[in-house]
Amino acid sequence: MAEIRFQRGERPLSPHLQVYRLPLTAITSILTRITGQGMLPGLLLIVWWLVAAVTSPDAFATADWALRSWLGSLVMIGTMWALFYHLLAGLRHLYYDSGRGMEIDTGRNLSIAVLVGSAILTVLTLVVMA
């Protein structure tokens, strides 16, 4: 057997997070999982608003005020973006499951399309709803 001996200073080092840069496809894959969980606060606000609507006028007024406040609006816009992002990323993965789009350039372009598409859909929805 070949014997390889490294002294402490000669050992190869693994790339550290500050040195290693994740590819865009990995970042968007991680972001897909984050947005899946990130939609929860918006969902809870919507459920609270709907339950308050059938409970009493005072409860509805409170929930409606919270939902229409700047913080509630910010949470709902973030939830809307997360929903669009998660939808487009799911469609991208469905495309991958068909065996297509496995080239590096195609994967990177699809990642950019998911990011840009989710932002455009969010802005379009805000414009239409305003």
From TrEMBL:
It is a multi-pass membrane protein. SUPFAM superfamilies: Fumarate reductase respiratory complex transmembrane subunits. Keywords: Heme, Iron, Membrane, Metal-binding, Transmembrane, Transmembrane helix. The keyword Transmembrane applies. This is Succinate dehydrogenase cytochrome b556 subunit. Part of an enzyme complex containing four subunits: a flavoprotein, an iron-sulfur protein, plus two membrane-anchoring proteins, SdhC and SdhD. The complex can form homotrimers. Its main location: membrane. The chain crosses the membrane at residues 30-50, 70-89, 110-129. The keyword Heme applies. GO terms for biological process: tricarboxylic acid cycle. The heme is bound between the two transmembrane subunits. It comes from the Bacteria. Pfam families: Sdh_cyt. InterPro entries: SQR/QFR_C/D, Succ_DH_cyt_bsu_CS, Succ_DH_cytb556, SuccDH_FuR_B_TM-su. The gene is sdhC. It comes from Paracoccus suum. GO terms for molecular function: electron transfer activity; metal ion binding. It is found in: Membrane. Its cofactor is heme. Belongs to the cytochrome b560 family. Heme binds at H86. Signal peptide: none annotated.
